[in-house]
Structure formats: C-alpha cells, structure tokens
Fold:
Amino acid sequence: MKATTALLSLAHLASAHYTFRTVEFDGQPTSEWGIIRKTANFETAGPIEDVTSEQLTCYELNPGSHGAGVLNVQAGAAVSFTSSPAIFHPGPSLAYLAKVPAGTSVSDWDGKGAVWFKIWQDEAIITSSGISWPSLQSPTIDFDLPECLDNGEYLLRVEHIGLHTTLEPQFYLSCAQINVSGGSGSYSPAGLLSFPGAYSMNDSGLKANLYWPIPTEYIAPGGPVGSC
Structure:
C-alpha cells in the first residue's frame, strides 16, 4: 500500500511539470521541436530550480548543437506556445527576444550575454481571496510580437515561473528560432538582460509568499516590458 501511495505521489509530481515544445504563429502550427530548441527536460518535464544555472538561457538538451529550424514570421504576429501538459502552478508567464548579431546565424548562436529584452508578461490578478495569473491551468501561453521590431533573426524565449513553494521558484522555458520581417524598427527595449544574470533570489517576484498575508502587489522579475 505504501509503495502504491509513493508511486501515485510521484506520478502527481510529474504531471505537475510541463514543457513548451510546439508553437503557433498567426494560427499556423509548427511541428514538435521543429523550430524550438529541444530542452533538457523533454522526458521529465522537470524545471530549473537554480536561479544562477547556465541552463536558464534556453534549457537546451545539447547546447551548441541546436537542431531546430528557423521560421519566417511577421512582426506583430500572434504567438501561442503550447504547454504540455497545461500550466499547473501559480506564477507569471513571460516572453523575451534576443536579436542575433550581424554575421551570425540564429542556428549557431548561444544567446549568451546581455542581449535579451522583455516583450510581454501576464499580469497578476489580486483579489481579497488571493493572487493568481491568467496562465494558470491554461494549455497555452499567448501574446503578440511587437509590430515595431527590427527585421532579422531572433531567439524567442518563453517562460513560466512556478511560485507555489515560497523561496523555491521553478523555471519552465524554451526558445524558438525565428526570422522577423515587416517590422518598423522602432522598438525600444526597457533594458538588455542576460540569462543567467537577469534574476536574483533577492527579486521580490521570486521570493513572494503567495498565500499569507495575501500580496497587495506583484512585480515580475526581469524588469518592465519595452515599447514601440
């Protein structure tokens, strides 16, 4: 009986974890890991739990051997990353871009250094009964690319941060490889970030206690979203 209970508990923990392995642009699907760099948790769906981990860049299974295609997309496209399974934990969802340096291909680039900028985050919903996020229990993370991006190749990093255990954030993420066209080139990032490096356990958005007392505000890590 104890063994059965332990197995059920492990199964529940596994089901509480998730990956982002497919993405749609303007309703057009891509194949599993087709343009997304295969993540190290592709079998376990387990999170990164160290805020200083080198895997926070793209959580790649084989760094340096990216093994993903590149998709041509329009600036302003509607993006939908599928969570497999649905997002189970409370916490923010975020999206970042990093523009590939001139003379380099996105397929060969590691995304290291202060090159990332935040383009979207879902905002916390705070009521007298608690705090939640729109992405909780959602099978997708949905947002739009800015219409004013520079044209060119980018890494697109999607992330969900599980905050269900106080002071023990869990990071679920992946990176897609895209080539943007049709942008006006006027996007103004709020700041350039590195992964790792963008987050610290001193960030209020990572050490927040979601349960009691109920937070009166929530500020996601990674700074503000840029603007056109």
